[in-house]
Amino acid sequence: MRVMIAAFVCLSIVSGGEALAGPAEARACADALSAESRMIYDAAAPEVKPGEKPAGVIRAKTRGLVMSGKLARDGAQAKAEAAGACLLKLHDGS
Asked: How far, in Å, are 2, 24, 60, 90 from residue 48 at the CA level?
């Protein structure tokens, strides 16, 4: 029983922390990104809408940056994933 209560408390704390994410947390996260990941974040952030997952926006913006030659194809997925982690904070706080 105590284990179940402890697990519930831990999950409540973790879930609550995610609910507190928002623009300030997303910007702080973005400030720690590499230049390439920050470029993806900056391109996608204005189009992240409340209630929508940002994956499609991230994919489209990353593809556009690669096609325009602003971002190398090698490693683009990892850079997009890093930007996506910050964009999820923006999405969660909306």
From this structure: 41, 15, 12, 8
Residue-wise pLDDT for 34-93, tens only, equals 999 999 999 999 998 877 789 999 999 999 999 999 999 999 999 999 999 999 988 775
CA 16 to chain CA mean position, Å: 17
Which long-range CB contacts under 8 A does 42-47 form with residues at least 24 apart? 44/83, 44/87, 45/87, 45/90
Domain map of the chain by residue range? 22-93
